[in-house]
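Hi team,

As requested, here is the filled-out complex form for the flavin-adenine dinucleotide run. I kept the field names the same as last time so the parser does not choke. Let me know if anything looks off before we queue the next batch.

— J.
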Amino acid sequence: MDIPRTADAVVIGGGIMGLASAYELAKEGKSVLVVERSDLGSGSTSKAAGGLRSQFSDEANIRLGARSLETFAWLQEERGHALDLLRTGYLFLLSEEEDVTRFERDVALQNSLGLRTRMLTVAEACELSPVVSPDGLVAAVFNPDDAHCTPEAAVAAFACEARRAGAVIATKAEATDIEVVDGRVTAVTVVRGTTTRVETSHVICAAGVWSASVGRMVGVDLPIRPLKRHVAVTEPVDFDARAIPFTIDFSSSFYFHSEGDGLLMGAPEKEDTWEFDVHRDPAWLEHLCDLIETRAPQLSDVEVRAGWAGLYEVTPDHNALIGSSQEVEGFHYACGFSGHGFLQGPAVGEVMRDLVLGRTPFVDVSGLSLDRFAAGDLRKELTIV
Ligand SMILES: Cc1cc2nc3c(=O)[nH]c(=O)nc-3n(C[C@H](O)[C@H](O)[C@H](O)COP(=O)(O)OP(=O)(O)OC[C@H]3O[C@@H](n4cnc5c(N)ncnc54)[C@H](O)[C@@H]3O)c2cc1C
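And here is what came back:
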């Protein structure tokens, strides 16, 4: 496949953000080129646990999560893409009274935005997720409409829809430079065996945890740090895994949900590792066993069969960077999703389309632009896992 020499927009990165953005723009009749230097979804997206929630503390995140859930359901139900989408809800287990107060506030906000989130007693939580130990828990929060699905299936679905809409998707194609003339984006250099100069007036930086290096091409500082996170997948369990919600022990961030007949489990490392390394650390598995012993001891004998490590793309306030540069016209960014980007991908794709086309997005994302850091106006998301 030849790399086109012109495009209305060049999207850098073939993860969920880049592909959703490309789909939305191509659907509007724009010529779009996606460049992915490796394989589609090979960055953080394919490492994600697939959790889809709209339970957040920040209104923009609630709206982005809820809108994306509709699109994931549309892709599966209307467009026939097999995403393994299971809408069994998201259950947060709380063990601190101060978290209860804060979550009660968030539930009120989410309800005001149309979500069915509700507080639960510990007994109700254990009924929904029967392997949970009630020890130390004081309450729980549940949204029955939250879900999980298979990330690489969502990547394939968006790639298919984007191509059908006319987008060109080039893998093994790296963006190595962005030309800026008189403060405007004019071209992107793409290397895929040979080098091609692609004339364009819009670039979307959707390069995930690697976005800072793309930002440097145009002198825009994107403050994102890589944080290693592991996931483990177990053998089949002797109960109906598919019936349980995505269950999270909020104080430790230990979580699990069904993966086929088994479970997918995740948790932070005991000590955070801030680097681009994705080697698996055996110490993490020991830590995971301790967390299981405390919160779901019934799972202690379940064997771990597979696993991987990937990178969260973390910003100083755990909120995404979504916007258009004030300094470089035509440079747009959607990155730094701090571990909850998969679930926001479809809605952020719509937002990026509107930023490129000069329309008003369905949700106000102005508070998520880079300008907040210059203004010292951090916007902290509290419901992070
Ligand atoms: C273990 C783990 C569990 C997670 N669980 C969840 C979850 O349950 N729910 C959730 O919402 N999120 C989850 N996340 C976070 C989620 O994976 C990310 O927020 C999301 O995938 C980011 O998508 P992206 O498209 O922005 O980035 P990526 O998927 O990383 O895509 C960026 C792409 O850009 C490419 N690229 C970089 N530089 C260039 C260049 N110069 N030229 C061309 N291509 C380039 C990379 O190769 C990469 O493929 C999890 C993350 C991890 C690590």
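Two things worth flagging: The mean pLDDT is 97. The longest strand covers residues 304-314.

Thanks,
J.
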